[in-house]
Write a structure and sequence with these properties.
Strand content: 15-25%
CATH topology of the largest domain: Beta-Lactamase
Shape: rod-shaped
Order of helices and strands: HHHEEEHEHEEEHEEEEEHH
Radius of gyration: 33 Å
Number of helices: 8
Largest sheet: 7 strands, antiparallel
Mean pLDDT: 83
Number of strands: 12
CATH class of the largest domain: Alpha Beta
Number of domains: 2
CATH superfamily of the largest domain: PAS domain
Distance between the termini: 13 Å
């Protein structure tokens, strides 16, 4: 009799659970479909938001560097600057006043462009560095005003005056400026022409101001954001994560998303490229950061399904037990 009663309980339990399991299976499939659709929507939303932020940064940087390029052009074409390129002995009686006159003709642009800390005209023949508020012999300039920790004076001078540069970022990162370590971008426009360099215009750009534009992007848990120039050289970056190379971006594409893979270090990357100067703006994020909303929904859905399953098992067992006893 006890055996028959136990069989009856099992029969009722199974009969009750079959439709319940079918219902749960249907719910699970519906949840999976909902999760997939939510995944696509949230992924599109996050990548669109990243692209919008990168585009805003790009437009601001394009605008500021367009101003810097105009300043560079004005200084290059200044008759006093062009004339002073030929001076070889700046402190002789006949040329000393020319030094003073050239220096005083320079306009301070840092008030008009918040990215600019200062600028210096470096003259090869006279070995002088002129700015709107100072005049230095080049060795003293490198010793007291501006120096790169990785280069001695001779190496720096040869690099600056031995290679023709057209609107290039010569260096970026920690630089000793006015006796303090400062995060700078050194924008360089050579004076003269290739094969006949007469000097260089150095515009010191505040890298902190540039990086502040990138701080609104979520790069938690190992993410990073960087800007590369048209040749793939790093301009600036945030976070100590890995860095993308120019070759990692699809050729010819102006913007887009690169899915996480071994090639991207497991990061999902969003990028856009400036049509003004060819610079690329790239943000890399771990997939769980990009899809945090989806993962939260997935966790909640699984928790609810498990709770319903356990509740159904308990309810079915209690119902089967009571029916079997009856």
């Amino acid at each position: 009799m006890r055996w028959a009663n136990g069989w009856k309980i099992q029969y009722i339990f199974v009969r009750f659970m079959i439709p319940y399991f079918l219902f749960m299976l249907f719910t699970l499939l519906a949840g999976a479909l909902f999760y997939r659709q939510t995944y696509d929507v949230v992924k599109k939303e996050v990548t669109h938001s990243n692209l919008q932020m990168l585009d805003q940064v790009k437009e601001t940087v394009d605008s500021r560097f367009n101003e810097i390029n105009r300043i560079s052009l004005q200084l290059q074409s200044d008759p006093a600057v062009q004339s002073f390129q030929q001076v070889k002995e700046p402190f002789r009686d006949t040329t000393a006043y020319k030094v003073y006159r050239t220096q005083k003709s320079l306009y301070s642009y840092n008030a008009a462009n918040g990215f600019i800390l200062n600028y210096y005209l470096i003259f090869k023949n006279s070995d002088l560095a002129l700015s709107p508020d100072s005049t230095y012999e080049l060795p003293s300039f490198y010793r007291y005003m501006f120096s790169e920790p990785s280069k001695d004076y001779t190496t720096w001078r040869n690099d600056l005056l031995g290679n023709f540069r057209n609107r290039e970022i010569m260096s970026s990162g920690s630089t000793v400026y006015q006796g303090k370590t400062t995060d700078l971008l050194t924008y360089v426009q050579s004076l003269g022409y290739p094969g006949h360099i007469q000097g260089a215009l150095m515009i010191l750009v505040d890298n902190q101001r540039l990086q502040s534009l990138l701080r609104g992007i979520d790069i938690s848990d190992g993410g990073w954001v960087s800007i590369m120039d048209e040749k793939g050289r790093l301009v600036t970056s945030l976070s100590s994560g890995g860095l993308v190379t120019r070759q990692s971006l699809p050729p010819g594409a102006k913007s887009g998303v690169i899915e996480a893979s071994a090639a991207t270090g497991g990061m999902m990357m969003t990028y856009t490229t400036s049509s003004y100067n060819g610079w690329s703006y790239v943000v890399a994020q771990p997939p769980h950061v990009v899809l945090s909303k989806v993962l939260a929904i997935k966790h909640t859905t699984v928790t609810i399904l498990l709770a319903f399953l356990i509740f159904g098992l308990i309810l079915a067992y209690l119902f089967a037990t009571r029916s079997g006893d009856g």
